[in-house]
Design a protein that fits this description.
Elements: E1 7-10, E2 13-16, E3 18-21, H1 31-58, H2 65-94, E4 98-100, H3 101-134, H4 139-142, H5 145-171, E5 180-181, H6 188-192, H7 200-232, H8 238-271, H9 277-302, H10 304-318
Parallel strand pairs: 3-5
Antiparallel strand pairs: 1-2, 3-4
Helix pairs in contact: 1-2, 1-9, 2-3, 2-9, 3-5, 3-7, 3-8, 5-7, 8-9, 9-10
Length: about 325
C-alpha cells in the first residue's frame, strides 16, 4: 500500500514524489556481505585520492600539467564515489532506501556530470601525452597554467550544460507506474521509465548526450594514441621509445578501467535481456567503485615522483 506522503495529487493524476531504492534486487539477504567490498573500495578511494591531491598540491615539483590533470581526476573520483557509495551502504546496513524525487534528480545530476567530467579529463590527459611526446620542446609553452585553468572550466561547463536540460525533461513527467527503484542510486532512464508520459524525448536526448560527450571523447582519445604510437615507433632510440611508452602506461590503464566497465554495462543493458537484474546493478556499481579505487594505486605504482612522496609521508609518520 502506498502511503499518503508517497504521492501528490494534481491535475494530471497521481505522481510519486518519494521513491524507494531497493538496492540489489534478488540479493537482499546478502546485502550485508555485499556491503563489505563496497565499504573497503570506498575507503581506499577516499584515502587514496585525497592523498594524491594533497601530494600534488603541496609539492611544487608536481605542479606540471600531467599531475594537475591527475589532481582533477582524483577530485572527480571522490565526488563520484561519495555521491553513490554512502547511499548504497545506507540501503545495505539500515534499509534506508527512501529518497525524494528532487533528491533523486540531484543525485542523478551529480553522478552524470561527474562521469562526463571524468571522460573530459581523460581526454585532456591524452592530449597532454600527445603534446609531451610529439612536441616535447613546445610542451611548457602550449600547456600553460592559464590554459589548464580554462580547460578545467570548459570540462565543468560542458558537463553542466549537457546534463542540465535533463532536469526539466524529468520534472515534466508524471510518475504513476511505480515507486520502487531496483537500484542503489538514481539514473536518468531508470527513473523516467516509471513515468506515464511519453519518454522518447528523454531517451533520444540521453543518447545525444552520450554520443556527443563520452563516445566523442573515446574516438578522439583513440586518434590521439594512434598519433602517439606513430611518433613513438619513429623515435631513433630504443630507450626513448621505452620511456615514452612508459609515460603513457598509467593513462592507458585508467582509460581501460573507466571506459571498459561502462561500455560492457551499456552492452548488457541493450542486448543482455536474459541477464539477471542483479548482474546489471552490480555492473553499474563496478563502474562507480573500481576506477576511483584503482586510479591512485595505478599512478602511485607507476609514477616515480608520486611513489617517492608517498614513501616520504609514511616515513615521516613513523618517526
Amino acid at each position: 500500500m502506498v502511503s499518503p506522503r508517497m504521492i501528490t495529487l494534481n491535475h494530471t493524476g497521481v505522481s510519486h514524489t518519494v521513491f524507494h531504492l531497493l538496492g540489489i534486487p534478488g540479493l537482499e539477504d546478502k546485502h550485508m556481505w555485499i556491503s563489505i567490498p563496497f565499504f573497503i573500495s570506498y575507503t581506499i578511494a577516499l584515502l587514496g585520492n585525497s592523498l594524491l591531491i594533497f601530494i600534488i598540491l603541496t609539492k611544487n615539483s608536481l605542479h606540471e600539467p600531467m599531475y594537475l590533470f591527475l589532481c582533477m581526476l582524483a577530485g572527480a573520483d571522490i565526488v563520484l564515489s561519495t555521491c553513490t557509495v554512502p547511499q548504497a551502504l545506507a540501503i545495505f546496513w539500515f534499509h534506508a532506501g527512501e529518497i525524494s524525487l528532487d533528491r533523486c534528480i540531484t543525485q542523478f545530476f551529480i553522478i552524470h556530470c561527474t562521469f562526463i567530467s571524468e571522460s573530459g579529463i581523460l581526454l585532456v590527459m591524452a592530449f597532454d601525452r600527445y603534446i609531451a611526446i610529439c612536441y616535447p620542446l613546445r610542451y611548457t609553452t602550449i600547456l600553460t597554467n592559464a590554459l589548464i585553468g580554462k580547460i578545467g572550466i570548459t570540462i565543468i561547463l560542458r558537463s553542466f550544460c549537457t546534463i542540465f536540460p535533463i532536469i526539466f525533461l524529468l520534472k515534466r513527467l508524471t510518475f504513476c507506474k511505480n515507486y520502487i527503484i531496483p537500484h542503489t542510486f538514481c539514473e536518468h532512464i531508470g527513473l523516467a521509465k516509471y513515468a506515464c508520459n511519453d519518454i522518447r524525448v528523454n531517451v533520444w536526448y540521453g543518447l545525444f548526450v552520450i554520443m556527443s560527450t563520452v563516445v566523442l571523447d573515446v574516438l578522439i582519445i583513440f586518434v590521439s594514441y594512434v598519433l602517439i604510437l606513430h611518433a613513438v615507433f619513429h623515435m631513433p632510440s630504443q630507450d626513448a621509445r621505452h620511456k615514452a611508452l612508459n609515460t603513457c602506461g598509467s593513462h592507458v590503464c585508467i582509460i581501460i578501467l573507466f571506459y571498459g566497465p561502462a561500455i560492457f554495462t551499456t552492452l548488457t543493458q541493450r542486448f543482455g535481456h536474459y541477464i539477471p537484474p542483479h548482474i546489471h546493478i552490480l555492473l553499474a556499481n563496478v563502474c562507480i567503485l573500481i576506477p576511483p579505487m584503482l586510479n591512485p594505486i595505478i599512478y602511485g605504482m607507476k609514477t616515480k615522483q608520486i611513489r617517492e612522496q608517498v614513501a616520504h609521508i609514511f616515513s615521516t609518520m613513523q618517526k
